[in-house]
Each structure stands twice: as C-alpha cells, then as structure tokens.
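Worked Example 4.2. Consider the chain below.
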Amino acid sequence: MTDLIPLSADVEVDGAAIAHAFHVPVPFFMAEMRRGNVRGTVERGVGEDAGRHRLIFRYRGRKLVILRQPDGRLVTEAPGDPTSAPDTRGS
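Applying the procedure from the previous section yields the following structure tokens:
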C-alpha cells in the first residue's frame, strides 16, 4: 500500500519515499505526519519556472527539498539531503 501525501491540488508525493529519505520507518513517519511533526511547503514556479514545484519537508530540524519538474520527475535538490546539518531557521 502506498501512502500518498497530498501537498496541493496537483502535487502528491509517496510518503514512503520521504520516510526513507529521512531514514525512519514508514508507519512511524506517517504517524508523525498525522501528529503534525512533519511540515511540508509547496512553492510554485512562475515565469520561466512555470510548471515546476519546490517541495520542502521539515522534520526534527532536518530539511528535504525536492524539485518537481514539468514532466513530473522528482529531483532532490543538493542542499536538501536530510542527513545534512540541521535546519536552524525553525519549522
């Protein structure tokens, strides 16, 4: 079973993929989502970036950034590695 996370009317992400990126078990991660411990933001591209989305996930001081290309491909942005230094800007 796939746990899809609806981020906006036209963007969904497989929760298992995000859980794996944060190195936590899928059921635990989905429970953390329901508890409100995972924050997600969607930024829509405009102008020359129209059709692109930046998906930002924050969990326990870590940040994962994924770019959704116009063709639907998901690409992890380099500084978005959740194993990188904690994000201290707040959630």
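The beta strands are 4-8, 11-14, 38-44, 53-59, 62-68, 74-76. The chain is about 20% helix and 35% strand. Compare this with Example 4.1 before moving on.
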